[in-house]
UniProtKB/TrEMBL annotation:
The chain crosses the membrane at residues 6-28, 61-83, 89-110, 122-143, 163-183. Keywords: Membrane, Transmembrane, Transmembrane helix. This is DUF2238 domain-containing protein. Coiled coil: none annotated. The keyword Transmembrane helix applies.
Length: 198
């Protein structure tokens, strides 16, 4: 009788990725500033991006840059699949996963920038990226076949590296935004404090 590879020892990747997705999501929700109503994030992104782009200001340029980024990442991914680049060039997978994490984190911050500014906190983005990345690994486990011939060790290493690169990309964005928020909160050099004696 033929056994599906999903029920081999490699099931630990699917189950483990599911667990990481749930824990990442719950952790993200516990962090100050996490946006409300996650089921509305996608419609909120669409409405916000269209409204911002129509204003034709600096934010519109950022949105256009993120749209271009998304197109590039998508093109790199599908080129990797159709041309066999993923198996030919070892770092291609690292590139696409880190760029994806970066892009998704940037979209999350830009979409929810009012909450980020209100709470002065953006660190909910990192565990959110972990949860989204792990969810994608679950999708691959269930619907893709590229891993069917892999050993458990190869599959675990690939999954851990993918999640690590997604998280790295998201952490870069979060660190930049957090540094920016910190710089905004610092008193200007040379300005007098209210208690400054003349």
């Amino acid at each position: 009788m033929f056994a599906l590879p999903h029920f081999s020892s490699r099931i630990v990747v699917g189950v483990g990725s599911s667990g990481i997705a749930v824990v990442g999501w719950l952790f993200a929700r516990s962090i100050r500033g996490f946006p409300t109503d996650p089921h509305l994030w996608l419609p909120r992104l669409v409405v916000r991006s269209v409204a911002d782009i129509r204003r034709l200001d600096r934010i519109a340029v950022v949105w256009m840059g993120l749209i271009a980024w998304s197109v590039i990442v998508t093109a790199l991914h599908f080129a990797g699949l159709t041309l066999g680049i993923y198996s030919a060039i070892s770092w291609w997978d690292l590139l696409t996963h880190s760029m994806s994490g970066f892009g998704i984190a940037a979209l999350a911050v830009l979409t929810h920038r009012d909450r980020v500014a209100m709470y002065g906190s953006v660190w909910w983005v990192v565990p959110t990226i972990v949860a989204i990345g792990a969810g994608f690994e679950v999708y691959e486990f269930v619907f893709k076949a590229f891993w069917h011939e892999w050993t458990l060790q190869k599959y675990v290493v690939d999954t851990v590296v993918d999640l690590g690169m997604n998280t790295l990309g998201g952490t870069v964005v979060t660190s930049i935004v957090s540094s920016y928020l910190t710089a905004l909160d610092r008193p200007q050099m040379g300005s007098k404090s209210p208690n400054h004696a003349e």
